Known about the structure:
This protein is α/β, with parallel strands linked by helices. The protein contains 24 helices and 30 strands. The strands form 8 sheets. Strands 5-4-18-17-16-6-7 form a 7-stranded mixed β-sheet. It is globular and about 70 Å long.
Amino acid sequence: GVALNIPDKQVDSVCPYCGVGCQLTYNIKDNKILYVEGRDGPANHGRLCVKGRFGFDYANHPHRLTRPLIRREGVPKTGDFAIDPERVLEVFREATWEEALALAGGKLKQIRDTLSPRALAGFGSAKGSNEEAYLFQKLVRTGFGSNNVDHCTRLCHASSVAALLEGIGSGAVSNPVMDVTKAEVVIVIGANPTVNHPVAATWMKNAIRAGTKLIVCDPRRPELARHAHRFLQFKPDTDVALLNAMMHVIVTEGLVNQDFIDSRTIGFEELAKNVEDYSPERMAPICGIDAETIRYVARLYATSKASMILWGMGVSQHVHGTDNARCLIALALMTGQVGRPGTGLHPLRGQNNVQGASDAGLIPMMYPDYQRVDNPQAQARFEQAWGVKLDPRPGLTVVEIMDAIDRGEIRGMYIMGENPAMSDPDANHARAALAALDHLVVQDIFLTETAYLADVILPASAFPEKTGTFTNTDRLVQLGRQAIDPPGEAKQDLWIIQQMACRMGLDWRYGHVSEVFDEMRHTMNSIGGITWDRLEREGAVTYPCQHEGDPGQAVVFTETFPREGGRARFVPADIIPANERPDADYPMVLITGRQLEHWHTGSMTRRTAVLDALEPDPVALVHPLDLQKMGVKPGEVITIESRRGQVALYARADDSSPVGAIFVPFCYYEAAINRLTNPALDPYGKIPEFKYCAIRARRGGEV
Ligand code: SF4
């Protein structure tokens, strides 16, 4: 009767949630995770946040999909539904793997052969391993026959990556998060680390205690602002005005690092000319920050021995997201605040493997390692490696794929581990598009809102049920190890992808996951030196790591940038307003994002007992003055409406949002806020404007 909670097994792995990449140990008994402990990994040194520590029991949730499902004849695909997992067998019938795979792959093959390879598309997942991402994009490119493959990086940092590739030749971070402890000045802009990268936030707080000056810039007041040396609560949508004003100060006051500009960059003259018009005095009324504060912060950043910039979705999710990131890059370049410890540019990556999934080629314009599909040499290299002819035309991105379904150009899709019915902007449209497909195959662990619209559902494995590598926001490739077995007939994702490949006519025979990793490292120079043995031994290796024995490089761009001539490029930006501004009909602004306790579309964390108990209901964070104006008390229901849809949810008084702006997390299926968001795209990164659209709100409604 005693010792009920003594584990019979301990397995070292990593956290399945955010890009910080905390290492942890699963404590197992009878194929069940009892509890989780932090391990001494490079990114966390034993620390874990509430998600990493308590967010594991979703794997044992009774809603897990345990058998393949096939949609029943004649059941309509409606985009408007209330998910009731108890009634799943009214919509789907159970099938054997053989029957489900034959239908799933067979119909995709038929569409490819009778219509066109470009009538198919696939979404992989930043929650899957590098090996899964690699095989998935390889399946789309070699089996479907086009580059129509993308994933949720398109919704988070696509604009940052576009600006980084253009400006400094690499889309990944220049320095690890931990470098905040080596910086004199740290700017955190458009990010809420205590919520979205909680353990990273603890390192920031440690740095502050040791003397680092933190500057927080954000239209909403994040918790970290309490610890900041200065907090700049600029008006939503005015990033470029603020950042150009800072650069104006640095240029006009002679605070630039001329040696760095001369020896390591191009295009400074044009940039300097462009910021001439952006004096702090002119920009102050636009961005809402007084000129003296802008001057003070610009001087502080430029003149410190080591200044670092970290940013999040507040920068990237705008129609001018690429411009926002261009300004941050220009700031770092003109002051030479890059290429040394404690400096640099760090786009905080969201998902635990969004860096790795992008590196592995889960993007429509790039093969693995950011080799462009329209570059003939890269094409030849992969044609040789994979033994097939490849389509040189870049594929469509996430939102473009939904639009192509409307036009009848895409007829079949394979979606692995993503939930666009919840995560895409204008979700009513996304749901209608998914429902309009001739054939939709979804591979997931739960009946997600997307899976509900599928023709075939393939039950997959949860994070602790498989082994693979995951790349964190610091470019650290880490080993996640299988701790428990998948339930029922659920299968490992790598096996399912291969079975799908075989049904598409490919002959794939990967055995162990290490065989996939080995193929990857032979096509990707950046990880060429990382062997599976070394990962088994060390658990984590930073790339670039080009040769075996190479220790890996945590700080990059020390001597040169991976661009033509080794030089970085300044790209000027001007103010472009949000696509949909408030007006008389829709006078308020909607900002979407995440909550500490829930992850993305909620499919995992809302099925986690502790996390769901902490945040059980859909909430909108509304300024107390706006609540007063609406005649609403905290806790009452409000209805929010945009031109695209409406939701009802509970109002929470929160003065961190500015008056006139409402913040809503996108994890609640009952109040799927992306029904309201605007699908307008940044022209370079093709990222939607999740951080700004026009809404109205009123008292009442039904949750
Ligand atoms: Fe997991 Fe991120 Fe929390 Fe670390 S900070 S435990 S990686 S969710």
